[in-house]
Every structure is written in C-alpha cells, then in structure tokens.
Specification:
alpha/beta, nine-stranded mixed sheet, 18% strand, nucleotide-binding, EC 2.7.4.22, Uridylate_kinase_bac, Uridylate kinase
Length: 231
Amino acid sequence: MKRILLKLSGEALAGPKKTGFDEATVMEVARQVKVLVDEGIQVGIVIGGGNFWRGRTSENIDRTKADQIGMLATVMNCIYVSEIFRTAGMRTSVLTPFECGSFTKLFSKDRVNKYFDRGMVVFMAGGTGHPYFSTDTATVLRAVEIEADMIFLAKAVDGVYDSDPKSNPDARKYDEVGIQEVIDKKLAVVDMTASILCMENKMPMLVFGLNEKDSIVNTAHGKFTGTKVLV
C-alpha cells in the first residue's frame, strides 16, 4: 500500500475517560503512524467527533446546527492530534471543506497530493462540510477523492460482528465480509451512505481495534486480526 486513509474514532481517542482526549492513547497512535510514514506510506486521517459531541442524541437542537457542532468537534480533534503528531516528529496539515481562518486550509485533492509529496500527514477535518452526512461518509468520500488504496477503520471494537458484542456475548466476529452483506444485514461497520459509497467505488476497508497493541502498524504489515471488508 502506498496511500491509506486512517479513520480514528473520537471515542477511542478519549480512552477510558470516554470524553475529551487521552493523551497517552494519542501519543501511541502518533508513534505507530510515524512508523508508516518513515516507511514511505502516505497517511491521510479523518477523526470522528464523538468524544465531544453526538448531535443526533439531542432533541432540542435543529439537526443542521447539531451537525455543524459535530463538524467543529472534528476540527478540534484534528488540530489536537496533528500537534501531538508534530511532537512525535511528523509534519502535518489540517484541511477543511470550509474556511476556519488561519486554523486550517481548504481541502482540495491537489493540495493533499502536494502535502503527501512533502511527506506530510494530512488531516481531513470538518466532515463533508454539509449536514446529514456522518464522518463515516466523509471518510469514504475523502478516501475515494484522494485515491487511497485502503481505508483503515480504527474503532473501539476489534472488528465486524454479526450483532453487538457489548450486548450479545455470543456475537460472532467476521474475518472477512463482503460490503453487500454489510449493507443487506445492516452490520453497522459504517453507516448506510458510506457503505454504498464504498461499494460503488470499490473501496475496501480493514476494521480493527485501535487500542490493541501495535494495531495500526500490524495492519499495514499484514499481521491483521480484525475484519476485512471486501468490495
């Protein structure tokens, strides 16, 4: 793989606190990503906003405004994580689909390619820039746009199950699953819009647990214990 899009769960970055940031977790992610960058792999990153805001749980705020707050949560996450990456010795840039003053630069494929050529890690914040689309959809959209070879989906769970392993101790984990089965059975790997976008653009995903030791590096090196989502 030459170019990957790494999706990080906001909740996973919060660690045991479940909200905000767990700096030890973020430092560990930075350490692993630096291994890939040093090997010449180009890394783009999308981060969810669930460690700060889950707008769909509120019934008192207009959905458009709630989604805008969520977009800003992903910008905060990307700025924070990108700075931790810098302390780990990487060069970074944060791109958004809307103006954030001097905090970020506007997303474009040309800009991403320019930064990748400079060896930078590119954070793609702000979702799609529109309400009613999740960071799942933004992840697949950006992966397709930048022509990533693969999506690395680093989650709080270690793969794809046939039911929720938190509520069903007998839930069965898939080693491999086709995107059509994900859609048909609503397996909640990513949301339905993102799943269909994956299927139509033949974008494969590797789903694994962020908090497993060396999970990002092992996934890139083929020592993979999560679930392959095939297209």
